Protein backbone atom coordinates (compact mmCIF):
# COMPACT_ATOMS: atom_id res chain seq x y z
CA UNK A 1 0.00 0.00 0.00
CA UNK A 2 1.39 3.30 -1.00
CA UNK A 3 1.83 6.17 1.46
CA UNK A 4 -0.84 8.13 -0.33
CA UNK A 5 -3.39 5.31 -0.05
CA UNK A 6 -2.48 4.69 3.60
CA UNK A 7 -2.97 8.38 4.43
CA UNK A 8 -6.31 8.33 2.68
CA UNK A 9 -7.47 5.27 4.64
CA UNK A 10 -6.55 6.71 8.05
CA UNK A 11 -7.70 10.28 7.45
CA UNK A 12 -10.57 11.48 9.65
CA UNK A 13 -13.87 12.14 7.90
CA UNK A 14 -14.53 15.73 7.00
CA UNK A 15 -16.90 17.53 9.36
CA UNK A 16 -20.41 18.09 8.00
CA UNK A 17 -21.12 21.54 6.64
CA UNK A 18 -22.76 24.09 8.92
CA UNK A 19 -25.97 23.97 6.87
CA UNK A 20 -26.34 20.21 7.48
CA UNK A 21 -25.76 20.58 11.23
CA UNK A 22 -28.31 23.37 11.44
CA UNK A 23 -30.84 21.29 9.49
CA UNK A 24 -30.49 18.33 11.91
CA UNK A 25 -31.17 20.52 14.96
CA UNK A 26 -34.58 20.37 16.49
CA UNK A 27 -37.09 23.14 15.91
CA UNK A 28 -37.03 23.95 19.64
CA UNK A 29 -33.27 24.57 19.54
CA UNK A 30 -33.59 26.78 16.50
CA UNK A 31 -36.46 28.71 18.08
CA UNK A 32 -34.46 29.22 21.28
CA UNK A 33 -31.50 30.50 19.32
CA UNK A 34 -33.72 32.85 17.35
CA UNK A 35 -35.32 34.53 20.36
CA UNK A 36 -32.17 34.67 22.49
CA UNK A 37 -30.97 37.78 20.72
CA UNK A 38 -32.42 41.22 20.45
CA UNK A 39 -36.06 40.09 20.55
CA UNK A 40 -35.70 38.48 23.97
CA UNK A 41 -33.78 41.44 25.34
CA UNK A 42 -36.44 43.83 24.11
CA UNK A 43 -39.14 41.70 25.73
CA UNK A 44 -37.30 41.59 29.06
CA UNK A 45 -36.77 45.35 28.91
CA UNK A 46 -40.48 45.83 28.30
CA UNK A 47 -41.34 43.59 31.27
CA UNK A 48 -38.92 45.52 33.48
CA UNK A 49 -40.44 48.85 32.51
CA UNK A 50 -43.93 47.49 33.08
CA UNK A 51 -42.86 46.26 36.54
CA UNK A 52 -41.57 49.74 37.39
CA UNK A 53 -44.80 51.51 36.39
CA UNK A 54 -46.34 51.36 39.92
CA UNK A 55 -43.13 52.73 41.45
CA UNK A 56 -42.94 55.56 38.94
CA UNK A 57 -46.63 56.30 39.38
CA UNK A 58 -46.31 56.44 43.16
CA UNK A 59 -43.32 58.76 42.89
CA UNK A 60 -45.14 61.17 40.60
CA UNK A 61 -48.27 61.00 42.75
CA UNK A 62 -46.25 61.88 45.83
CA UNK A 63 -44.98 64.99 44.03
CA UNK A 64 -48.46 66.30 43.18
CA UNK A 65 -50.92 68.31 45.23
CA UNK A 66 -54.05 66.59 46.59
CA UNK A 67 -56.37 68.60 44.36
CA UNK A 68 -54.38 67.61 41.28
CA UNK A 69 -54.51 63.94 42.26
CA UNK A 70 -58.27 64.17 42.77
CA UNK A 71 -58.77 65.81 39.39
CA UNK A 72 -56.65 63.56 37.17
CA UNK A 73 -54.26 60.62 37.08
CA UNK A 74 -50.56 60.80 37.77
CA UNK A 75 -49.66 60.43 34.08
CA UNK A 76 -50.96 63.95 33.43
CA UNK A 77 -47.79 65.29 35.02
CA UNK A 78 -45.99 64.66 31.72
CA UNK A 79 -48.16 67.27 30.04
CA UNK A 80 -48.24 69.58 33.08
CA UNK A 81 -44.85 69.36 34.82
CA UNK A 82 -45.69 72.46 36.87
CA UNK A 83 -47.76 70.19 39.12
CA UNK A 84 -44.60 68.74 40.65
CA UNK A 85 -43.92 69.98 44.17
CA UNK A 86 -42.27 68.78 47.40
CA UNK A 87 -45.05 70.10 49.65
CA UNK A 88 -46.27 66.58 50.39
CA UNK A 89 -42.86 65.53 51.70
CA UNK A 90 -42.79 68.60 53.91
CA UNK A 91 -46.16 67.60 55.38
CA UNK A 92 -44.85 64.09 55.84
CA UNK A 93 -41.97 65.34 57.96
CA UNK A 94 -44.46 67.27 60.06
CA UNK A 95 -46.55 64.15 60.68
CA UNK A 96 -45.27 62.69 63.94
CA UNK A 97 -46.96 59.31 63.51
CA UNK A 98 -45.26 58.63 60.18
CA UNK A 99 -41.80 59.85 61.21
CA UNK A 100 -41.92 57.89 64.49
CA UNK A 101 -43.04 54.76 62.66
CA UNK A 102 -40.20 55.14 60.17
CA UNK A 103 -37.74 55.29 63.06
CA UNK A 104 -39.42 52.25 64.63
CA UNK A 105 -38.93 50.39 61.37
CA UNK A 106 -35.21 51.08 61.55
CA UNK A 107 -35.08 49.97 65.18
CA UNK A 108 -36.77 46.70 64.23
CA UNK A 109 -35.03 45.96 60.94
CA UNK A 110 -31.39 46.68 61.82
CA UNK A 111 -31.16 44.55 65.02
CA UNK A 112 -33.18 41.72 63.44
CA UNK A 113 -30.85 41.67 60.44
CA UNK A 114 -27.62 41.91 62.43
CA UNK A 115 -28.63 39.20 64.92
CA UNK A 116 -29.73 36.77 62.20
CA UNK A 117 -26.50 37.27 60.27
CA UNK A 118 -24.31 36.92 63.38
CA UNK A 119 -26.05 33.91 64.94
CA UNK A 120 -26.60 32.25 61.57
CA UNK A 121 -22.91 32.61 60.70
CA UNK A 122 -21.79 31.03 63.97
CA UNK A 123 -24.29 28.19 63.67
CA UNK A 124 -23.50 27.63 60.01
CA UNK A 125 -19.79 27.31 60.78
CA UNK A 126 -20.51 24.91 63.63
CA UNK A 127 -22.68 22.65 61.48
CA UNK A 128 -20.16 22.72 58.63
CA UNK A 129 -16.81 22.21 60.36
CA UNK A 130 -17.25 21.32 64.02
CA UNK A 131 -17.94 17.81 65.32
CA UNK A 132 -20.44 17.45 68.15
CA UNK A 133 -22.97 14.77 69.09
CA UNK A 134 -26.05 14.69 66.89
CA UNK A 135 -24.78 17.34 64.49
CA UNK A 136 -26.57 15.95 61.44
CA UNK A 137 -29.82 15.39 63.33
CA UNK A 138 -29.74 18.92 64.70
CA UNK A 139 -29.20 20.26 61.21
CA UNK A 140 -32.13 18.24 59.87
CA UNK A 141 -34.24 19.75 62.62
CA UNK A 142 -33.19 23.25 61.57
CA UNK A 143 -34.02 22.46 57.93
CA UNK A 144 -37.41 21.14 59.04
CA UNK A 145 -38.21 24.50 60.62
CA UNK A 146 -38.10 26.08 57.16
CA UNK A 147 -41.54 24.67 56.38
CA UNK A 148 -43.20 26.03 59.53
CA UNK A 149 -45.47 28.94 58.52
CA UNK A 150 -45.36 32.17 60.48
CA UNK A 151 -49.13 32.12 61.00
CA UNK A 152 -48.92 28.97 63.12
CA UNK A 153 -46.81 30.69 65.79
CA UNK A 154 -48.60 34.04 66.02
CA UNK A 155 -51.07 33.17 68.79
CA UNK A 156 -48.76 30.99 70.97
CA UNK A 157 -45.91 33.50 70.85
CA UNK A 158 -48.30 36.40 71.45
CA UNK A 159 -49.47 34.67 74.63
CA UNK A 160 -45.87 33.98 75.65
CA UNK A 161 -44.83 37.59 75.08
CA UNK A 162 -47.86 38.76 77.02
CA UNK A 163 -46.86 36.62 80.00
CA UNK A 164 -43.27 37.87 80.07
CA UNK A 165 -44.08 41.51 79.27
CA UNK A 166 -42.74 41.72 75.71
CA UNK A 167 -46.04 42.02 73.86
CA UNK A 168 -46.35 45.36 72.10
CA UNK A 169 -42.64 46.16 72.36
CA UNK A 170 -40.04 46.55 69.65
CA UNK A 171 -37.92 43.87 71.32
CA UNK A 172 -40.70 41.33 70.92
CA UNK A 173 -40.98 42.00 67.19
CA UNK A 174 -37.20 41.73 66.80
CA UNK A 175 -37.09 38.39 68.63
CA UNK A 176 -39.91 37.02 66.49
CA UNK A 177 -38.12 37.97 63.27
CA UNK A 178 -34.84 36.56 64.55
CA UNK A 179 -36.46 33.26 65.47
CA UNK A 180 -38.08 32.77 62.09
CA UNK A 181 -35.10 34.09 60.14
CA UNK A 182 -32.51 31.77 61.67
CA UNK A 183 -33.53 28.46 59.98
CA UNK A 184 -32.96 29.86 56.51
CA UNK A 185 -29.80 31.64 57.66
CA UNK A 186 -28.29 28.47 59.12
CA UNK A 187 -29.25 26.43 56.06
CA UNK A 188 -27.78 28.94 53.62
CA UNK A 189 -24.52 29.61 55.45
CA UNK A 190 -23.86 26.02 56.43
CA UNK A 191 -24.04 24.93 52.77
CA UNK A 192 -21.80 27.81 51.73
CA UNK A 193 -19.21 27.27 54.47
CA UNK A 194 -19.09 23.53 53.70
CA UNK A 195 -17.69 24.36 50.24
CA UNK A 196 -14.57 25.96 51.70
CA UNK A 197 -11.55 23.69 50.99
CA UNK A 198 -10.65 21.59 54.01
CA UNK A 199 -6.94 22.04 53.27
CA UNK A 200 -7.26 25.77 53.81
CA UNK A 201 -8.76 25.31 57.25
CA UNK A 202 -6.25 22.65 58.21
CA UNK A 203 -3.39 24.93 57.18
CA UNK A 204 -4.77 27.66 59.40
CA UNK A 205 -5.04 25.22 62.31
CA UNK A 206 -1.44 24.13 61.80
CA UNK A 207 -0.45 27.79 62.11
CA UNK A 208 -2.04 27.84 65.56
CA UNK A 209 -5.41 29.38 64.74
CA UNK A 210 -8.21 28.47 67.12
CA UNK A 211 -11.84 28.04 66.15
CA UNK A 212 -12.77 31.66 66.83
CA UNK A 213 -9.80 33.05 64.96
CA UNK A 214 -10.38 30.60 62.14
CA UNK A 215 -13.99 31.73 61.91
CA UNK A 216 -13.16 35.45 61.92
CA UNK A 217 -10.01 35.43 59.75
CA UNK A 218 -10.76 32.69 57.21
CA UNK A 219 -14.41 31.67 57.07
CA UNK A 220 -16.05 35.08 57.35
CA UNK A 221 -14.02 36.73 54.55
CA UNK A 222 -14.60 33.77 52.23
CA UNK A 223 -18.30 33.70 53.07
CA UNK A 224 -18.83 37.35 52.18
CA UNK A 225 -21.21 36.76 49.23
CA UNK A 226 -23.47 34.42 51.19
CA UNK A 227 -23.46 36.66 54.26
CA UNK A 228 -24.28 39.71 52.13
CA UNK A 229 -27.15 37.91 50.40
CA UNK A 230 -28.51 36.73 53.73
CA UNK A 231 -28.38 40.26 55.14
CA UNK A 232 -30.22 41.65 52.11
CA UNK A 233 -32.87 38.95 52.24
CA UNK A 234 -33.48 39.44 55.95
CA UNK A 235 -33.54 43.22 55.61
CA UNK A 236 -36.15 43.12 52.84
CA UNK A 237 -38.33 40.64 54.69
CA UNK A 238 -38.35 42.53 57.99
CA UNK A 239 -38.69 46.00 56.45
CA UNK A 240 -41.71 45.01 54.34
CA UNK A 241 -43.37 42.90 57.03
CA UNK A 242 -46.86 43.89 58.09
CA UNK A 243 -48.44 40.75 59.54
CA UNK A 244 -46.04 40.29 62.46
CA UNK A 245 -45.92 44.01 63.20
CA UNK A 246 -49.71 44.26 63.08
CA UNK A 247 -50.03 41.52 65.70
CA UNK A 248 -47.14 42.31 68.05
CA UNK A 249 -46.98 46.12 68.07
CA UNK A 250 -49.15 48.82 69.55
CA UNK A 251 -49.39 52.61 69.28
CA UNK A 252 -45.91 54.04 69.67
CA UNK A 253 -44.04 50.95 68.43
CA UNK A 254 -45.67 50.46 65.03
CA UNK A 255 -43.43 50.34 61.93
CA UNK A 256 -44.12 52.28 58.76
CA UNK A 257 -46.23 49.53 57.16
CA UNK A 258 -48.74 49.48 60.04
CA UNK A 259 -48.71 53.28 60.39
CA UNK A 260 -49.65 53.74 56.72
CA UNK A 261 -52.44 51.20 57.04
CA UNK A 262 -53.74 53.04 60.11
CA UNK A 263 -53.64 56.36 58.27
CA UNK A 264 -55.70 54.91 55.44
CA UNK A 265 -58.28 53.51 57.83
CA UNK A 266 -58.60 56.63 59.96
CA UNK A 267 -58.21 59.52 57.56
CA UNK A 268 -58.56 58.01 54.08
CA UNK A 269 -58.37 61.35 52.30
CA UNK A 270 -54.86 62.44 53.39
CA UNK A 271 -53.28 61.21 50.21
CA UNK A 272 -50.70 63.99 50.45
CA UNK A 273 -49.19 62.15 53.43
CA UNK A 274 -49.86 58.56 52.37
CA UNK A 275 -48.28 58.82 48.92
CA UNK A 276 -44.83 60.11 50.00
CA UNK A 277 -44.88 57.81 53.04
CA UNK A 278 -45.61 54.77 50.88
CA UNK A 279 -42.92 55.77 48.40
CA UNK A 280 -40.27 56.17 51.10
CA UNK A 281 -41.30 52.84 52.61
CA UNK A 282 -40.92 51.17 49.22
CA UNK A 283 -37.88 52.90 47.78
CA UNK A 284 -35.51 52.11 50.67
CA UNK A 285 -35.64 48.29 50.36
CA UNK A 286 -35.77 48.65 46.58
CA UNK A 287 -32.56 50.68 46.61
CA UNK A 288 -30.89 48.17 48.93
CA UNK A 289 -31.79 45.28 46.66
CA UNK A 290 -30.62 46.96 43.46
CA UNK A 291 -27.40 48.09 45.13
CA UNK A 292 -26.48 44.55 46.24
CA UNK A 293 -28.38 42.35 43.81
CA UNK A 294 -25.18 40.79 42.43
CA UNK A 295 -24.05 39.68 45.89
CA UNK A 296 -27.58 38.47 46.62
CA UNK A 297 -27.81 36.24 43.55
CA UNK A 298 -24.25 34.88 43.81
CA UNK A 299 -24.60 34.14 47.51
CA UNK A 300 -27.94 32.34 47.21
CA UNK A 301 -26.77 30.24 44.24
CA UNK A 302 -23.50 29.31 45.93
CA UNK A 303 -25.12 28.42 49.23
CA UNK A 304 -28.08 26.52 47.82
CA UNK A 305 -26.02 24.11 45.69
CA UNK A 306 -23.26 22.02 47.14
Give a structural overview:
Helix content is 76%, strand content 0%. The chain has 17 helices and no strands. With 306 residues, the chain is mostly helical. The mean pLDDT is 79. It is globular, with a radius of gyration of 28 Å. It starts with a helix and ends with a helix.
Quick gist of this model?
The protein is mainly α. The protein is built from 17 helices and no strands. The longest helix is centred in the middle third of the chain and has 34 residues, at 96-129.
Essential attributes:
306 residues, 17 helices, mainly alpha, single chain
**Judging from the principal axes of the Cα atoms, what is the shape?**
globular
Query: How many β strands by DSSP?
Result: 0
Q: Provide a count of the helices.
A: 17
Low-pLDDT stretches: none
Radius of gyration using CA atoms only: 28 Å
Report the order of strands and helices.
HHHHHHHHHHHHHHHHH
- What level of helicity do the residues show? over 70%
Instruction: Look at the structure and give the mean pLDDT.
Output: 79
* Largest beta-sheet details: none
Helix and strand composition category: mainly alpha
Q: What is the CA–CA distance across the termini?
A: 57 Å
| Range of strand content | under 5%
Amino acid sequence: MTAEAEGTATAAPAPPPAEAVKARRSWAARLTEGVSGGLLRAFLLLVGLFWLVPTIGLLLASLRKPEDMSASGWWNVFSKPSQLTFDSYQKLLENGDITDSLWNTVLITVPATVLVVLIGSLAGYAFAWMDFPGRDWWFLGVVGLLVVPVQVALIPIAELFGNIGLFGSILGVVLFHVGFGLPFAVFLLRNFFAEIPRELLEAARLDGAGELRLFLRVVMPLGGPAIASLGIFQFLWVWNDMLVALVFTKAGTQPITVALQTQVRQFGSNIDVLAPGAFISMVIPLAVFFAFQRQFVSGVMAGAVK
